[in-house]
Amino acid sequence: MSLLLKDRVYTIQSATSKRGIYPLHSYKLGLYRLPIKLEDKYEIDSIVNGFKKILVMDQFADRIYATYRWKEENMPDPDTRGYKQIELEIQVEIVTGEVVDMIYQIYPVEKYGDGLWVKDYRKKADANAKMIIDTILRNSILADRMIEYLVKNRQLSQEQAVKELEEMTPLAQIVPNAKPKPKPAAPPPGQEVQQVEVETPSGAKAGPIDVEFKTKLKVTETFAAPSSGHKIKIFGQRKGNEILGIWGEYVSVDYDICIADGACIDACPVCIADGACIDACPVKVFEWVEFKGNPSSEKKPLMSREPDCIFCLACENVCPVQAIKIAKKG
After folding, report:
1. Is residue 204 part of a domain?
2. What is the pTM of this model?
3. Which of 124, 160, 176, 209 could bond 156 through an S-S bridge, CB–CB 3.0 to 4.6 Å?
4. 105-118 pLDDT tens trace
5. Same domain assignment for residues 154 and 10
């Protein structure tokens, strides 16, 4: 979405002002309207609760407030003479209803104290605001609603809609467990039904990986590898970090089977297998990534450089639980 936000002050229109959005004079206003409906309290609450680990979240009536705070220093050493520090913040207001408005205003730096020395304050505030918007849109129930809208109104396939969403939100951070859990069904009239939490696996799923998974499971989302930017396809529905599904199109790992013993990383012939290569080797296929709370193992071998695979099957052959499947393109 940040790609669609123009660097200008929006002219207020009657339809917008009726929703209570009033830009302050001379302050930059960013406003983006999503053509999707968000009125269910359960879904609204899921956004508030889903991002509390990385943002300061608040809620009032039909509005959600997401605040990002950061510090600026004029020099790295606080003991140096003349050292200055200031705490800054940017807030995005999400107005729910028949459509969703995501708004932010960049206040003068003087609002936070003596900060005229801060370089590129407005650019940083603008980038952080767009990061908030992209992150919430990519990781929350809004992502599902936006994909549904693109499929229905733009006649895109599910995979094309997911790609469109990713291109629309280039500044998004990956936030696990931000989407709401399935809403419990209402009991029949006059009958009480005890609510049961979906059971989380107590350990790893039994192998081997289903070699026909591509014909049975759909691509539900993609994950951008931190080191390479390669977008890894994820097959099957996820439940936070508790149920992860199968990752990778050609170098495929069922993360619910994987116990992360590291054999695949050591076996990969484009890695020199001395341990340091995990961080340093520029052409490695796998790297470690953490999934806190996963019952089989909290770290997984991420196929960050999947396109570099030479299809030698070394990782597939050494996996003790048969969680890996290598398949050539085409």
Report:
1. no
2. 0.53
3. 160
4. 888 899 899 889 99
5. yes
